[in-house]
Amino acid sequence: MSAPKKVVLAYSGGLDTSIILKWLQTEYGCEVVTFTADLGQGEELEPAREKAVMLGIDPRNIYIEDVREEFVRDFVFPMFRANALYEGLYLLGTSIARPLISKRLVEIAAETGADAVSHGATGKGNDQVRFELAAYALNPDIKVIAPWREWDLSSRTKLLDFAEKNQIPIAKDKRGEAPFSVDANLLHTSSEGKVLEDPAQEAPDYVYQRTVHPEDAPDTPEMVEITFEKGDAVAINGEAMSPATILTKLNELGGKHGVGRLDLVEGRFVGMKSRGIYETPGGTILLEAHRGIEQITLDRGAAHLKDELMPRYAELIYNGFWYSPEREMLQAAIDHSQAHVTGTVRLKLYKGSVRTVGRWSEHSLYSEAHVTFEDDAGAYDQKDAAGFIQLNALRLKLLAARDRRLK
Fold this sequence. Notes:
elongated, five-stranded antiparallel beta sheet, 14 strands, Rossmann fold, 3 domains, Argininosuccinate synthetase, chain A, domain 2, five-stranded parallel beta sheet, alpha/beta, 12 helices
């Protein structure tokens, strides 16, 4: 690969990406453009601008963007229409943010005439795959620079030495080993490494940042009502809100009640297993609510088919194939299923749990007349069930008769 002339770097302002920024300048002698996305990680982003300027970046080449609404509207909500869970548990909080960041990296490269993009993901994890598959899907000619796979800064000591040599500020707590690594956005926080690397040991409570310990949550349950239109949440307790505002509010409610904690050992796409501590308070409430409204608005056949497709859909997102034709095909089917997923769900939040306790909709398929134990006034003829059972039992009878004959 020829040396790049201009590189767009996914830049957090932290130590690692600051080292990458300087390394790109010194290793390739190229111009660097920084992109910092506000995904709702809860950090002040202006320091990233100041640090980029200090490291010699032209202010015109510094992009800091609030993409929270786009993130929830165009990535999180479509994923939640599928009730996506990786390996049955993980709500894909890190995975779903990567295609948006990659999209903006590629777009900014086109706007600025850059011929390459760069990220700070290591060569051991999933994020390198997600960033790069998305970038190539959007621009097959883009160069991708992954410093962790190229440089010889293979230890924390070497990184710190490089930072000191290049006058990159080092926060005092970074001079020792960090207790764990954190990724955060509006959907979740993910903590990995160090004190969490032994899966036999319970994670210390200080790892959790968005949720109170369920045992310390309020002793009184709290009710919340979420209204959906065509599979997407549009209001909380009757108040219409934007997608990002809804998720922010649900995070607040879930965090207060200790909802959404997950201790997971997952199978990474690159082959190894890793242990992560995830907090997805708002997403956990949203999943329960979406399941609740689907219970009365989605036909059994469609609902069961969706559940069969979901693990494949979740795996595609986890593995970095958001921009693949197969994910888009599945999305089209999922979105079609949501045409009547409209109505309101009432949920109870209490000490780490969220439960659906009521749901109603003008699009409901639920018929009290058909299921009542009282007189159904002719809505359902119970005698019809006899023929239904006999037809479904026919092959079972034939199998049983053959087996008895051959004994």
